Amino acid sequence: MAFSVAENDTDDDFAESHEINVTPFIDVMLVLLIIFMVAAPLSTVDLPIDLPTSTATPTKKPDKPTYVSIKPDLSLAIGETFVKRVDLVSALDAIPDMSKDKYIFVRADRAVPYGELMDVLEFLRKGGYSKVKLVALEGVPDAAAAAQGAPTTPNP
């Protein structure tokens, strides 16, 4: 509660000021802003992988997706936790709230050979995980065609 002192006040009582003090509110908002700015980048998978681009229409991502990443050195990770290739299925089975019906998002670096990607997909299939989606970066259709050497305009 704030008080004001007026010069023409003759008695010892202070007059009440009926203004809202917003300083604590602003302090709380600034602290919350800092917390969200720090926490937001931490909520994504942070393994550096050079993903290929795709011109397909992106689909809706679930609330808590399970990412299996293949790095250029062919090491595997579930989220940000590295696992051995033979332990991939058992590590997925150990995840709470993980079922064979949930989608697994596979992220493979551009430098990973196709055969290695297929080996990981085969491990997942043998383990009962048949719902797999491949992750790629969104690309512009014209840029994808130009990158593959296809002409962007039709020839007469």
Describe, in plain words, how this protein is organized in 3D:
The chain is of the alpha/beta class. The protein contains four helices and nine strands. The protein has helices at 23-42, 88-93, 114-126, 141-147, and strands at residues 2-4, 15-17, 53-54, 66-70, 76-78, 81-83, 104-108, 132-134, 137-138. Strands 6-5-4-7-8 form a five-stranded mixed sheet. A hairpin with a 2-residue loop joins strand 5 (76-78) and strand 6. It starts with a strand and ends in a 9-residue tail after the last helix. Mean pLDDT is 78; it is low at 150-156.
Summary, kept brief:
By secondary structure, the protein is of the alpha/beta class.
SSE map:
Layout (H helix, E strand, L loop, with lengths): L1 E3 L10 E3 L5 H20 L10 E2 L11 E5 L5 E3 L2 E3 L4 H6 L10 E5 L5 H13 L5 E3 L2 E2 L2 H7 L9
Parallel strand pairs: 3-9, 4-7, 7-8
Antiparallel strand pairs: 1-2, 4-5, 5-6
Q: What keywords describe this structure?
A:
alpha/beta, 5-stranded mixed sheet, elongated, two-stranded antiparallel sheet, 9 strands, 156 residues, disordered C terminus
- Which regions are unreliable across 5 or more consecutive residues at pLDDT < 50? 150-156
Distance between the termini: 81 Å
Roughly what fraction of the amino acids lie in strands?
Answer: 15-25%
Please state the average pLDDT score: 78
What is Rg?
28 Å
Order of helices and strands: EEHEEEEHEHEEH
Number of helices: 4
**Biggest sheet, strands in spatial order?**
6-5-4-7-8
Largest sheet: 5 strands, mixed
Structural class: alpha/beta
Number of strands: 9
- Indicate the percent of residues in helices: 25-40%
Apparent shape: elongated
